[in-house]
Amino acid sequence: MKSSEIRQQFLEFFESHGHTIVASSPLVPGNDPTLLFTNAGMVQFKDVFLGQDKRPYVRAVSSQRCVRAGGKHNDLENVGYTARHHTFFEMLGNFSFGDYFKRNAIQFAWEFLTVSLKIPREKLWVTVYAEDDEAADIWLNEIGVDPSRVVRIATMDNFWQMGDTGPCGPCSEIFYDHGPDVKGGPPGSADADGDRYIEIWNLVFMQYNRDSAGTLHPLPKPSVDTGMGLERISAVMQQVHSNYEIDLFQSLIKAAARVTHT
Fold first, then answer.
1. Deepest in the core among 183, 212, 229, 240, taking most CB within 10 A?
2. At a CB cut-off of 8 Å and minimum separation 6, what does 161 contact?
3. What's the alpha-carbon Rg for the chain, to the nearest Å?
4. How far is 125 from 173, CA to CA, in rounded Å?
5. Average pLDDT of the chain to the nearest whole number
6. What's the pTM?
């Protein structure tokens, strides 16, 4: 499946579930002086989460162009060392502004991955914030994920915020197992930084606003912010282990080879 087909299928899936398709915003945020570049799909919706901006919709879906080359979310130092990091990428995301919360976010993600994309359930692992019993219960008792593949993470790896201040909350990440031929251990293990188990989707349950003093204040309405790297899910669907082997990068590499006669 081509990357363009995955992107379109993602947008159409969530549109069929009542989400409004919203265009990617500019790489330089127009509404956030705390960021140099847009680093996540939720950046253009920051004021909506804070209750300072009203939109004619309560559900949105987008494919957002992002740069992570500095600041809190900086992937620059990982480029060339892993098969999954690059500084510019597209983030597929679905959002709820006070409409649905954890249950629907988890159900939507699982349906898209296992039904729409037909990824085998046994290839997927899940992490939850250690204190988030509600999310863990949904995964275990409603979705039916094997308990051996549900990992509680007690660190900030499962508590997401786009910067030092602003909307934030616990999150639940979905990982894909590329198989024993690739080095690396499952999430939460000593070898978790390897490339076997790759985080493909992060479901953030926006509940708080962190102020400049670090204090958490409840948001007006609990909301949902998710992000799935188009390049990472493309690697899964194209059955390759490196993002650089997918069609998007191969087209660029071949074009560069033609121009440079190499």
1. 229
2. 72, 167, 168, 169, 210
3. 18
4. 8
5. 92
6. 0.91
